[in-house]
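ingest -> validate -> predict -> emit
validate: passed (alphabet ok, no gaps, 268 aa)
predict: started
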Amino acid sequence: MTTPLTDDYPYAVAEVAAGELRQRWGLDHVFAGIVLGSGWGPAAETWGEPLHETSMADVSGFVPPIAPGHAGRILHYRWSGRDVLVLSGRTHFFEGHGTAAVVHGVRMLAALGVRRLIVTNANGSFRPQWPLGQIVALTDHLNLSWVSPLVGARFVDLTDAYDPALRARALQIDPTLVTGVYAMFPGPHYETAAEAKMAATMGADVVGMSTVLEVIAAREFDMKVLALSIVTAHEASGEIIDPDEVVAVAQASARRTSGLLKAIIESD
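emit:
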């Protein structure tokens, strides 16, 4: 007999995935989760050997990511006595597996007890004064994918989707951060100059193809979310966007910023 595909089905699969990691790694309560987006993988290289590590492909419900700069690994660390799980890479909506696959990792983290989440990505910026490699702490988003990971009568308040207290802590630890609004397009093509102008007119400072659906899913579970985004290109500037260059810029900046991610998890 197969499990019926009800609205609750993705949550049940997330519980199964959480149970697998509990059994394999002896996890009890996981304090925090980190999602390493495009080019952010090298941040984990500065944290030393994880206590445990596995491929996403070996955990129920995951669709291994295919985008450049996404390793498709799950890492387990213990910082200051707190268990932390790192998802090195993410499945994007443009990969065609639906919203449930995009947010499965976040739902698994919720099933493991995570209530603090850091999500990261790379962006194209509408602010020419922000240099490549600049880290932006997101304050809000525009969901220009026009989809939601929530199905059925699940009404989630997104007023403070990006936690002000966590953002303030990040700015205190690293005053070089700037703040801005992120717009998500579905991709995988980059937006046209007219679309970029539209997003900027609507209030976006940066644009990308991820994060928003994960944040919505996290807020359903009352997670406190911090989102950090690396400027890897300048939108509507006439420059050609090279995907490999996007990853390279993000990787260089992520190495410098890895200490910030760890410090935010350890602070309180």
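The chain has one domain: 9-266.
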